[in-house]
Amino acid sequence: MAKNVNVWIDGHHLEVPDTMTIIEAADKHGIYIPRLCYHPDLPPTANCGVCVVEFEGNPVPKRACCTPVAEGMKIHTNSKKLRSYRKTLIEMILSNHEVVCPTCTANNKCELQTLANNLGVDPDSLPNILVKKEADFSSPSIIRDPNKCIACGRCITVCNEVQTVYALTNSDRGIGSEVTTAFGMGMAQSPCVNCGQCTVYCPTGALRERSEIDEVWEAILDPDKHVIVQEAPAIRVSLGEEFGLPLGSITAKKMYAALRKIGFDAIMDTNFTADLTIMEEGTECVARLKAGEKRPLITSCSPGWIKFMETYYPDLADCVSTAKSPMSMFGVLSKTYYAQEHGIDPAKIVSVAVMPCTAKKFEARRPELRDSGYQDTDYVLTTREFLRMIKEAGIDFAHIKEEDADEGMSFYTGAGTIFGATGGVMEAAIRSAYTLVTGQELEDIDIVGVRGLEGVKEATVNVPGFGDLRVAVAHGLGNARYVMDKVREGLKATGESPWHFIEIMACPGGCVGGGGQPYGNDIASRARRGLALYEEDKSLPVRKSHHNPEVTRIYERFLGAPNSPLAHKLLHTNYFKRSISNGQVVEEATHKHH
Amino acid sequence: MKYYRSHVLVGINETSVAAGVNNFIKALRAELSKAGLSDEINILETGPLGFFGKGICITVYPENINYENLKEEHIPNLVQEHFLKGRPVVELMLESAGRFSPKLNYNQRIVLRNSGIIDPESIDDYIGAGGYEAWEKALTQMEPKAIVEEVKNSGLRGRGGAGFPAGVKWSFTAPLDAKQKYVVVNADEGEPGTFKDRLIMEGDPHQLLEGVMICARAIGATKAYIYIRGEYKLCIERLQKAIDDCRNYGIIGTNIFETGFDLDIEIKIGAGAYVCGEETALIESLEGNRGHPRWKPPFPGVKGLWQAPTVVNNVETLANVPFIIAKGADEYKKYGTPECAGTKVYTILGDVAYPGLCEVDMGTTLRTIINDYAGGMKKGFKFKAALVGGAAGMILSEKLLDVKMDLASLNQYSAVLGSGAILVMNEHQSIVDMLWSILRFFRHESCGKCAPCKNGTQQLYRLITKIKKGEGSMDDVELMLTIAETMQQTSFCALGQSPIMAIRSAIENFRDEFIAITQK
Questions:
Q1: A98 and A71 in one domain?
Q2: CATH assignment of the domain containing A21
Q3: Residue B503's closest CA among B464, B469, B466, B473?
Q4: Three-state SS at B476
């Protein structure tokens, strides 16, 4: 049980619970202690030593990140000695770091760079001791560059403790130690699910997305290619922060304008296929509920989650919706429906997706996602890459005149846009599934029980004619693991799952906290972006996917009905069992319906 | 019981095994049998004999004559002359003319009192020498609280390096209410030049086990692990046999001596990382994880092995415990100094006449240890410096030869007792070379977890290499101090906090040498 204690930091008296560490107490009261490896979202690794503070009556300084406060503690965060230690520490870290700031993707966002600058360290005070190692380019999603790694350990913590993926680990020791995958086989030969949380938490540019900017420019600048672009829901609430707009600004129309200025030929929106996903997944869900299926239905939008499921829970693959993700639905439709409607040779269409996600790069390359006869989605840009393109194009994003998207595959409802926040898919699905089951409209469509940042959220919705629909929402793969273990236990013990319908997103906070999102975000800023999506939802004229006129149109003109044979062919997929040791496909876990 | 005219104690340890002692014993038995002496001369395989001999050493009783550096070719002569005719072979004797006669201070010994006397592989020998009386007393006549008090009163301090009072450590864990507690023996002896724990375990494994048992009873642990380095093959064999014998005798197991107390002891073999001698890294390694230290608090005494309250003690510390319980804290305090009770086992190596081990009172000066127990300096050499406490220790100059070697006295000179390793250097040895070797060691053994240690050990190694090559300046020397001090204050565990000791002592005590080499 926590009790409050009195501590003094630099003379300021604070009364804080004794469960807090010194750095937490200081942060809460606006006292900044220099730090490098510490991140408020993660348990401390205590690797860097930068946050050492001094105590009255104790000659030994200690790390503020992992030293709990105690009654009567008198803490000093700055002194001649501490300044000297911090400088020497940063100089030592820099001496073993590839200093290529101007070209580094983390430039101006790098926490080491910032700290070195703030502390005024002398970069030449110590000889360089970096022994260059080969970077790991094996993954389609993530590049791991040991030469920029400062061994803060955050990536290992987030990979193992938050996401429970266990792809990253330490190997060797001393100066030769490095963050790597098991047996140094490379990310592509590991259980890595490409969620990219490691890239978000990396304080330097040692972990970053594999960029496809050049390929996308090549396509745009090729007059023979017709480049069509889609943007995930989370993108529109994550761009403004980079240009001085308040966190969580809704910039959908500035985003369209910027894309048009960059030179994309057709500007559509993933939110459209998010609505379409609800029709397909909702129909699937209702069919299962009506059939009295005891096994739950789990969402399939998040590619990090899908690979995680294939690796750790292939036995439950049949519980996962066969619906492709909104991105992949868009990809296949861009080379079929769109090509047909506009009379364009699909061979000339380059389908680009702007995603908050690194795992989408892996998803786009899945060999089974070629139902258009081509690779359905050609290139995936993360939010960070898109931001670099905006800057390269010299666009003044904050002041660009708002424009609309092109018509056909861009109209979206409030249900589609909240896909970007944890709980959003569930909420959107309930809004439509209710109608599909009862033929009536759900009146109170704000299902707040599934919103927010709690790791696992549960809700019960009464559906007339069916009864109580029990749903669960998990975000972050550690929480997904918890839910899946419950499902597995339930099915084993009683043959029944604790929930009928489950939403799982690989990243904490959902897509707004995705692995491709701008650097420097913590849970608080993710939450702000998520809230913006709910604000947009509220402001939109249509808030239920089944009322999206473009969705109605595509069923009328092209697909027929939800779960029709053509819909199954183009919009649904199957899953595989993967090896835990190297993430490679072992066999099919489910078969594709034809 | 069978009576023998003479007992031949053969010291079996890693050194003598390397020198071929097993074949030597076979040959000796054969020769004795050939001479018809098998019924008269008893050969006893025992642990380290407690004197500083080379190669294969034996002691012959009742004459108390020590032979050293024996080879198989010496056997016929030895059997004919000494065992048949009763004329010791002077040229093979340790005490031969003009040679050093070591102090065999048996009456001053606690930890090594049985070593070299009993057969370490025989539980009966140990019991015959008074073994397990303390265990019986602790289990049947003493309350756990009383045991902790007794150890507290004895003033026994940890012998692993830090010197924390053992009884105090136990008193943190003993009152905790927990489903499971553990005793962990730190037998991962890794300080360069230190092999005292090996010799303690080789010479008298049961005494360690008895200490473990008493500690377990005192804190309420029902499971103990001995984390031992993998290179200590003979120790592992002997400890395992000792544990098995104890199980068979009902000395450990379930419902021991019908008191309802259960205890099991298990050996875990380490893979040789220096950092695993740090107690939290050792615990991580025991759990099957990478040997990385943990942050304290919580201390292992509260949350240790598998998050259970755990007492981690050094081998030598626990080997002192049976004596304290059997004879009482007051008797124990007769040894050593008022601030630092008991004895200390040292390993002495380097340029002394007889490298090896000795057990002396706490507070014995370095000069006495070198002269009386190691035969002084090697012939023709003068004392220059001693590295005391291994790589994490300090380089002492002649000025400190007469300082009492105990934690309190050394502390006045900011020196530490450390692991008990004393590496003696002669006047021709280079302090810079020595420091280079120490810093190379730290660079190799840094676990890589924390930035100050990982990068600092490499920087220090680069700098000392440059200085050693004569390419450095006094600025580089100062830079080493800055780096090492930053490491001391900001490193996560004792490993990175340690290099400052050697560096500062080397530079302070032998500054001229650094000036000379940087002006080359």
A1: no
A2: 3.10.20.740
A3: B464
A4: helix
Q: How far is residue A477's CA from residue A312's CA, in Å, rounded to a whole number?
A: 11
Q: How far apart are CA A158 and CA A513, in angstroms?
A: 13
Distance (Å, whole) CA A81 – CA A83:
5
For residue B40, give the nearest of B13, B61, B69, B12 by alpha carbon: B61
DSSP-based three-state secondary structure for B24: helix
Q: Judge whether A321 counts as a catalytic residue.
A: yes
Contacts of A49 in chain B (CB under 8 A): 450-452, 490-492
DSSP B80: I
Closest CA to B317 of B110, B121, B129, B108: B110
pLDDT of B97 over the 50 cut: no
Same domain (yes/no): A298, A373:
yes
Distance from CA of B457 to the nearest CA of A (A): 8
B179 CB burial (10 A radius; 0-12, 13-18, 19+): exposed
CATH number of B431-518: 1.20.1440.230
Instruction: Let me know how many helices (H) and strands (E) chain B has, helices first.
Output: 21, 14
What's the CA gap between B16 and B12, in Å, rounded?
A: 6
Mean pLDDT across the stretch B397-409? 88
Predicted TM-score (pTM) of this structure: 0.90
The confidence band for B62, taking pLDDT boundaries of 50, 70 and 90, is confident
How do residues A388-443 score in pLDDT, each as one tens digit?
A: 999 999 999 999 999 999 999 999 999 999 999 999 999 999 999 999 889 999 99
A281 counts as catalytic = yes
CA distance A248 to B509: 63
CATH topology of domain B6-99: Glutaredoxin (3.40.30)
> Which residues on chain A are in Cβ contact (under 8 Å) with B446?
173-175
Q: Identify the pLDDT of residue A300.
A: 97
Same domain, residue pair A130 and A279: no
Note if the bond before B298 is cis, omega within 30 degrees: yes
